[in-house]
């Protein structure tokens, strides 16, 4: 099943609603089912109980009251995740282009939750830097509160999968040993376009992943090339902290990022970045200059 957060209005500033995506239509869940959570984290927390109702509703797709996907504004599937973590240096070709050695352990950084962005919203070229870069990534959403999860059971705690762009401000990222600031600028975590639930997607480790900038392909790989797969990531992170429903995990980027070119190919205002992952979908974001306003 594909679950989406959306607004019926063009600007997307109004209250988020939960929908089921069927082909090019959205079933507005609240219009059909009473007493269901109005936000995605609430739904994830109640998914075991709510799933049969959602499946029955999806099975009745084709009603005249369904919304046309192109006529609504898609929001970040979880508009405000509790935590956002990304793993670095997790594809061999990206390690090679970075000039860094293969790490002996998983390398993790946090992204501020205020970096969360919608799948088709603009991303900002910040006032503080011109070294804006893209990173196409498979992302997953945690579905169960968990800690110390063994690898062989990690699939049980993943609710579903999305496409993401781990937008990075490289000079801020690399001027210290800590990546957090360079990864946390506002608007720099667009993802979606929806959550494909784990039961529908199946194996997340055989998906083609691509990134285009202004129609030019920059990244092309497959998630089978992940050094640490999704389940190993869950097992590792859950040793350090409790993972909670709605937490967002970015699984690493393949080679082809802007900093890997000689000279580097930074994103400019007006550029359009598109991330595609087979069997999940695509997100597309235009780069705009950050406003100088402080409020």
- Here the CATH topology of the largest domain equals Fumarylacetoacetate hydrolase, domain 2
CATH architecture of the largest domain: Alpha-Beta Complex
Low-confidence stretches: none
Distance between the termini: 39 Å
The dominant shape is globular
CATH C-level name of the largest domain: Alpha Beta
Chain-averaged pLDDT = 95
Beta fraction of the residues?
25-35%
Q: In percent, how helical is the residue content?
A: 10-25%
Taking Cα atoms only, what radius of gyration do you get, to the nearest Å? 18 Å
Largest sheet: 12 strands, mixed
Structural class label: alpha+beta
String of helices and strands: EEEHHEEEHEEEEEEEHHEHEEHEEE
Number of strands: 19
Total of helices:
7
Describe this structure in words.
17% of the residues lie in helices and 32% in strands. With 295 residues, the protein is α+β, with helices and mostly antiparallel strands. It has two domains: 2-74, no CATH class; 84-289, Fumarylacetoacetate hydrolase, domain 2, CATH 3.90.850. Strands 1, 2, 3, 4, 5, 6, 7, 8, 11, 12, 14 and 17 form a twelve-stranded mixed β-sheet that branches. The protein has a five-stranded mixed β-sheet with strand order 9-19-18-15-16, with no helix packed on it. It has a two-stranded antiparallel sheet with strand order 10-13. A hairpin with a 2-residue loop joins strand 15 and strand 16 (216-222).
